[in-house]
Write a structure and sequence with these properties.
CATH superfamily of chain B: MetI-like
Transmembrane segments (chain B): 28-50, 97-120, 140-170, 216-241, 261-284
Shape of chain B: flat
Largest interface: A-B, 31 and 40 residues
Keywords (chain B): Cell inner membrane, Cell membrane, Membrane, Transmembrane, Transmembrane helix, Transport
Main location (chain B): membrane
Number of strands of chain A: 0
Distance between the termini of chain A: 42 Å
Subcellular location (chain B): Cell inner membrane; Cell membrane
Radius of gyration of chain B: 23 Å
Number of domains of chain B: 1
Oligomer: heterodimer
Helix content of chain B: 55-70%
CATH architecture of the largest domain in chain A: Orthogonal Bundle
Number of domains of chain A: 2
Helix content of chain A: over 70%
Radius of gyration of chain A: 25 Å
Shape of chain A: extended
CATH architecture of chain B: Orthogonal Bundle
Largest sheet of chain A: none
Domain ABC transmembrane type-1 (chain B): 95-284
Distance between the termini of chain B: 33 Å
Largest sheet of chain B: none
Number of helices of chain B: 10
Order of helices and strands of chain B: HHHHHHHHHH
Order of helices and strands of chain A: HHHHHHHHHHHHH
Chain lengths: 291, 297
């Protein structure tokens, strides 16, 4: 156990090292002056430029430059954003909270819907319900999410007028910025009509989170189904059926020490695969920023 | 002279025949195979099928709805856009571009990825561990993000986005190939070839490659749907194909300007992407389950 943990931690640090080196070399690869690319400070005076160059050790070798870069990263000094001119760390923490919030709701949605359906499909393997769920999941899996979002806006916001068009909350409510998570902010704040503000924010969240969730839900469903089928085909399940237990007993009875573990393993599998980039769900969450 | 065939049960279908027999049973997969063939047909003969030039502007037909609408016109089956360009021909050319480019990209990245993966899988010790760690760190980045970073370095444009996507697709092929090669290297037929004195190259081409070809086809279908999604997403974000060129993602982002008055301008290209991805995914699924179950029946 300890050995495995150590191995994975060393892998993690190595990966982070390579990634940070990669992001540092981007400053040289992007067009323009590397120092400007690193700090994001344009049009600085000559003195300021010299000071910055000293801070980032631009005269020294590539490796000491990299060392300075890592030091700055850990100190929270990430440079300025090119598009807005504000410090990048603040900028990211602001928009990251919005993305994380949206992704979290989409993920919760997709697990609440996808896991039970996946279990259902897996337990009714090669029956009608399995085939219909599987074909529905292929449809959801193949929809380009940016197009789905547009169609959802066209139908539900413009044609039917059920949901607001864009933004995170109506301009009527002025919610002070605290955590960046809009629902938490509303609960923490002391605006007069708290419930209405909360409802309004929820209405703003429904369309984007549902349209992302449709895609991720199908992925959860497929992975859960696959793992359930594998568990149900294993020998101890066959043995339980051979002993004359009903399907319900086999599914729920905690008589085997292995059972709860294998259910957890199924859920863990699903989370692992969602995070795994081979299945490319990262792209969908990435797209969330473009809403 | 016909071969005398007394015992019918002596006929053993080849693995490919087995796979096809199993694949045929899955009607949805078969239908989507026809759909993919249709797209390939459109890709090759698109210019002959399209009624108009995709860039020709019909000034008297601006924003005409599709033919099944009351205000529609039969000469423009899918309607026209804000500049009076025929939507059907634009979509035909768009399918041609998106599908054809994705196919080329996937084939290129397959060739590179498989050769690198074979090297990674057959080497041992420090070299393979370095390759593995590098690969794991690259796999941690979403393909679309890699593509966007590369585009930020080399600039926007269709050709640059093609480079970016093929570079982003390669790691998946390396990973898959490496795993399969590792698996196969432990088989006895590889050991037999080694005992006969075969070199690494010979073993790979004669013993391993024939056995992994089917898995590669499945991986290609997966990569194809990713490539189509990425190309159209980059076109949609105005990072890939630029505005006048009829690429499906670029069509979508152009249709966005007139989405309120002409929703068919975003519905049609999106539906084309959707149909393309769905048929490819279904073929991939059908193929995978056919490979899994072909020997069980």
């Amino acid at each position: 156990m300890l050995k495995i943990m150590l191995r994975h931690i060393s892998l993690l640090t190595l990966t982070l090292l390579i990634l940070s080196f990669f992001s540092f070399s981007l400053a040289y690869l992007f067009p323009g002056d590397p120092l400007v690319n690193l700090t994001g400070i344009r049009n600085s005076s000559e003195q300021g430029y010299a000071l910055l160059a000293q801070q980032y050790a631009m005269q020294d070798s590539f490796i000491s430059q990299y060392w300075q870069y890592v030091n700055h990263l850990f100190a929270g000094n990430w440079g300025l954003s090119f598009s807005s001119g504000l410090p990048l760390a603040e900028e990211i923490s602001r928009s990251l909270a919005a993305s994380v919030e949206l992704s979290a709701y989409a993920l919760i949605f997709s697990f609440v819907i996808g896991l039970p359906l996946g279990f259902l499909a897996g337990l009714r393997h090669h029956k009608f319900i399995d085939f219909s769920l599987l074909s529905a999941s292929v449809i959801g899996y193949s929809i380009p999410v940016f197009w789905l979002a547009l169609i959802a806006i066209l139908i539900f916001s413009i044609q039917l007028g059920w949901f607001p068009l864009s933004g995170r909350i109506s301009l009527l409510y002025d919610i002070p910025y605290q955590t960046g998570f809009i629902l938490v902010d509303i609960l923490l704040s002391d605006v007069p009509d708290k419930e209405f503000a909360f409802q309004d924010a929820l209405q703003h969240l429904v369309l984007p989170s549902v349209s992302i969730a449709i895609v991720t839900c199908t992925i959860v469903l497929r992975i859960t189904r696959r793992s359930v089928i594998e568990v149900m085909n294993s020998e101890y399940i066959q043995a339980a059926y051979a002993r004359g237990l009903s399907p319900r007993q086999v599914f729920f009875a905690p008589w085997s020490k292995k059972r709860p573990y294998s259910y957890f393993a199924v859920i863990g599998d699903a989370i692992y695969y969602l995070a795994d980039k081979r299945h490319d769900s990262g792209n969908y969450f990435f797209m969330a920023g473009y809403w | 002279m016909p071969r005398l065939n007394l015992y019918q049960e002596e006929f053993y279908p080849s693995p490919i025949q087995n796979t096809w027999k199993e694949f045929k049973e899955n009607h949805a997969a078969l239908m989507s195979l026809y759909c993919v063939i249709f797209f390939i047909f459109v890709m090759i003969f698109g210019p002959l099928l399209a009624p108009f030039d995709p860039l020709q502007q019909h000034i008297e037909f601006l924003l005409v709805p599709p033919a099944w609408d009351n205000n529609g016109d039969i000469s423009h089956l899918f309607g026209t856009d804000g500049l009076g360009r025929d939507m059907l021909s634009r979509i035909i050319y768009g399918c041609r571009m998106t599908f054809g480019i994705s196919l080329v990209l996937v084939i290129i990245s397959m060739l590179i990825g498989v050769s690198l993966g074979a090297m990674a899988g057959m080497s041992k010790g420090l070299r393979s561990s370095v390759v593995n760690h590098l690969l794991d760190s690259i796999m941690a980045i979403p393909t679309l993000l890699i593509a966007i970073i590369i585009i930020a370095i080399v600039g926007t444009g269709l050709v640059n986005s093609m480079w970016a996507i093929s570079l982003a697709l390669i790691p998946q092929f390396i990973h898959q190939t490496r795993d399969i090669v590792r698996q196969k290297m432990k088989k006895e037929y590889v050991l037999a070839a080694q005992l006969d004195g075969a070199g690494k190259v010979h073993i790979f081409f004669n013993s391993i490659l024939p056995n992994m070809a089917e898995m590669l086809v499945v991986q290609v279908t997966l990569a194809l749907s990713v490539a189509i999604l990425d190309i159209s997403a980059l076109g949609f974000l105005n990072l890939g194909a630029q505005a006048p060129s009829p690429e499906l993602g670029a069509l979508l982002s152009e249709g966005l300007a007139s989405a309120y008055v002409a929703p068919w301008n975003i519905a049609m290209p999106g539906a084309a992407i959707f149909l393309m991805m769905m048929s490819i995914n279904l073929v991939g699924d059908g193929l995978r389950s056919a490979l899994r179950y072909r020997l069980l029946r």
